[in-house]
Amino acid sequence: MSKTEFRNWQSVHEEVLRRINAREWKPGQMIPNEADLALEFGCARATVNRALREIAETGLLERRRKAGTRVTEQPLARATLDIPVIRQEVEARGQRYQHRLMKRDLTVPPSAVSAAMATDPDAPLLHLIALHLADARPYAFEDRWINPEAAPGAKDEAFTETSGNEWLLLHTPYTHGEIAFSAANATEDEADALACAEGAALLVLDRMTWNKDLSVTKVRLVFSEGHQLRAIL
Amino acid sequence: MSKTEFRNWQSVHEEVLRRINAREWKPGQMIPNEADLALEFGCARATVNRALREIAETGLLERRRKAGTRVTEQPLARATLDIPVIRQEVEARGQRYQHRLMKRDLTVPPSAVSAAMATDPDAPLLHLIALHLADARPYAFEDRWINPEAAPGAKDEAFTETSGNEWLLLHTPYTHGEIAFSAANATEDEADALACAEGAALLVLDRMTWNKDLSVTKVRLVFSEGHQLRAIL
DNA sequence: TATGCTATTATGTTCATACATAACAATCTG
DNA sequence: CAGATTGTTATGTATGAACATAATAGCATA
User: Are A63 and A56 in contact (CB under 8 A)?
Assistant: First the structure.
């Protein structure tokens, strides 16, 4: 055993990853307890705890009280996706962002929408259809429903300058939400708006956010052809 | 000011979120420093630190030394995607998992592959084509390249019983990787394997993993029609 | 005026200690 | 032997104190 000491949690973190990686601690195997590791590493148990907790968050270690800590047998890959505001995403590439509002209506939504958003089937919602452009070329097609009950000021906002997303971020907090990615063939409208062939495979992002029990918004973003969503493992 | 005390980091976490949510602390605004909050909450600074750190990780707070902590103006949605081993994903739904190896070759890859994987253009790589099935119906189509240099035992593995992913997870660690989602129209082969129409929009996952400087594997997973990838915000 | 030094400040981290909590093991009780 | 009780153990968390570090502001100097 080397006499090197690991006096901060990053170096403990690193060393533990190294041991898992080098199979010194094999998948499924228990590792020594915190107190022992602290002794071995020459640091406080809190420091070991911090390091192990971080690793456990990535899914590479499994920890249970009393039972101890073991190396995960089949760690699932965990990717953190940052879903940026489209304006920022476009501008980060050095392109010019534009937003074109194509429709703005206060209408009673299809029952599928009111059901998903848990709103009164007869209550009108704000419906926005918009196109996001990067350097004047279509970037994403947006179809959004906003619950005016959850977003009071929305009725008075034109959404010509500010996109729905940006406005909501600034004016309406949310407590939780869900997001789903899928692929869809371009409909006639989408093909038209995004300047691609009808039937082209497009990446679709469906998102719905809630403020406690109240649905805030339900949005479907259809990205232009070839769009990729990247993440680091 | 209420006399309620917040004596653990979860309750501090909750209270801080509530204040951000209720706009008591507005987007872009500085919040009191840790010491003051600790005093107000009646707990130790470390406890406040823990709570604020967790929130900062979700992107809702921005912290800088000396500058202090502020509420993020335009928080980007951050979703953590769990990309499970397909077997587990299928079995978790209560369906029967099967894996059908369609091709297994040790060949010199196209230059695009060797370039992406940073391997010698003339070095043969292990090429697997396989189909994942759920309840005997096609689930995902897999096209994988494995670098034998990074995965020594791979040459001796048949991959008929165990899928590439499962085998690699158990035998070849990786230090980092990247992942990308996109949509593609089904090619003839894919349509055939996945029992869908040619041209159907399919969700595609491209992944590449590395063990330090050495590429381990590059895989393209094409999911059957209608597949969704979900995450919670 | 420009530049470099210094003090200040807020977050970042370590540490020893203590207690809380979940889970398992052993033991007791009917 | 079944079921409840108690003990033990490893992780989880709280605390105060101390020092580290980065960023800033203000001051001093050339």
Answer: yes
